[in-house]
Amino acid sequence: MTPETITVDYLIIGAGATGMAFADALLSESTGTMAVVDRNHAPGGHWTMSYPFVRLHGPSNVYGVHSRAMPSDSVGASLASRNEVLDYYDRIMRDVLVASGRVTYLPMHDVADVRAGRPATARARSLVTGATTQIVVRKRIVDASYVNVTVPAMMRPGYDVEDGAPVVPVNRLVELGGAPERFTVVGAGKTGLDACLWLLNQGVTPDRIRWIAPRDAWLVNRSHEGAESQFRELTRLHEHDSVDGATGALEELGLVLRRDPAVTPGAFRCATVSSTELDQLRQIEDVVRLGRVRRIDSAGAHLEGGTIPTPHGTVYVDCSADGLTQKQPRPVFDEGTITLQPLLPCLVAPSAAVIAKLESLDLDDATRNHLAPPAQNPRTARDLLSFYGTRMERLHRWSSSPALFEWLVGSRLSAALFDLHEMADPDNRATVAALAGHLDDVLKRDDDPA
Ligand SMILES: Cc1cc2nc3c(=O)[nH]c(=O)nc-3n(C[C@H](O)[C@H](O)[C@H](O)COP(=O)(O)OP(=O)(O)OC[C@H]3O[C@@H](n4cnc5c(N)ncnc54)[C@H](O)[C@@H]3O)c2cc1C
Fold first, then answer.
1. What is the 349 CA–ligand 1 centroid distance (Å)?
2. Other CB atoms within 10 A of residue 229 CB
């Protein structure tokens, strides 16, 4: 059978938050045609397979796409649920992208045989029928899958589990039934936090929950995300020349929180909580800090730092998948390709929209890449300073490009760059540049490879 052939300006591989934000912004800023191809049955990427009670943890106004608000689109509003996020992306795909007549959407298709060239070509193979569509790409192939998010539903736990050991992935928590006597939550990232909060909100008393938390992490205070004039508050960091000092100042400013006041966090993964949620989490007293789990079997849980027996009637809830992988940065714009990556740590949607805007501008790729340096997602406590430093640096960098700046100021996603409108003032631009430079110096001076 001869494969169907379609010709487009852009092939976008992946219809997750990144691919959707890129496609939407490019649609509104250019006249290009696109094919959006995804293995999943619906747009939204990992949201299609995340645990049912997952919600956005950051503010909705820095998530989604440029052209349309998300449900609860304001700082401090209730957080969009998984169903709301999926419904939002479904509507964007149908009512904005496909309805434009310029976007072909191929769900349940795997992209293979990507060949560079002018034009480039690729094959999209249906995972349902096996039929292939030949895609001829006049301008660029856009990789919206590079960041490679994983959620527990996609993988087995990263430790051994003896056959019959009572370990369930977090997705199955809602199906358990039988009212287990005790729960042990494995993992202290965003998913682990969500699992603990969900159990508490169901009425499980804190003494029935054990929490295996290899490393405590700094948590972003949700009520401060996207707050006005944050750069003025952050100038206080100039008073500190060490990582510990600057981190302490962030805590004093209320920008970041820690679960246990007696424990210095060693990690930072952008997990975001409200003070109410933090109070709830603090009710769980049985927190195990013995490193990572190596194996769970009939003798108990074997961790890097020792073995703990399994209390009778316990169910282990696996929340150990790394949802925020760190990929090797690469140039965003290259000959015939775009590799979508975060330009602001953790903020994939505004980053992808900025990249689309840059693609639409009459610039060469060297200039585009200058305006789009990839940012690493954070991992250690030190990365807290890069998180704020990179935001300050991007404020300065992006406000130096009048066309990009004007667009950002008008975009709903620009709240990610708090204080953007204030960057028209050269003094404020100098302030954020100095702050970014200071935080960079602190990190270099206080070099601690651990
Ligand atoms: C549980 C969780 C909650 C999060 N909550 C927030 C939040 O509240 N706020 C926030 O800012 N960030 C949040 N993040 C972080 C980040 O913003 C999201 O993970 C974001 O949705 C990632 O989107 P993505 O498009 O980069 O990746 P994905 O969601 O993984 O999408 C990639 C898509 O590419 C497709 N694909 C890959 N390869 C191919 C191929 N060869 N052919 C066809 N299709 C392919 C996949 O099927 C997938 O649909 C969260 C992350 C997790 C894990």
1. 10
2. 11
Ligand 1: atom nearest CA of 51 is 1
Please give the distance, rounded to the nearest whole angstrom, from the Cα atom of residue 23 to the centre of ligand 1: 15
CA distance 340 to 372: 10
Residues 47 and 76 in one domain: yes
Check the CA dihedral 25-108-143-335 and report its sign.
negative
- In ligand 1, the atom with minimum distance to the C-alpha of 46 is 29
With respect to residue 160, please indicate whether it lies within any of the assigned structural domains.
Answer: yes
Q: Which of 229, 260, 265 is nearest to 247 (CA)?
A: 265
* Per-residue pLDDT, 74: 58
Residue 248 is assigned to a structural domain of this protein: no
Clarify whether residues 104 and 127 are in a common domain: yes
Assembly ipTM: 0.95
**Protein residue closest via CA to atom 38 of ligand 1:** 145
CB-based pocket (< 6 A), ligand 1:
13-19, 37-40, 45-46, 50, 54, 56-58, 63, 110-111, 144-145, 147, 149, 151, 190-191, 323, 346-348
**Residues spanned by the domain of 277:** 152-216+258-318
Mean pLDDT by 10 residues, the chain (450 residues): 88 98 98 98 95 89 93 68 96 98 98 91 97 97 86 77 94 89 94 96 97 94 74 93 96 94 93 93 96 95 96 94 80 96 94 98 98 94 95 95 94 82 93 96 79
For the stretch 215-226, pLDDT in tens is: 899 999 988 776
CATH code for the domain of 204: 3.50.50.60
- Total structural domains within the chain: 3
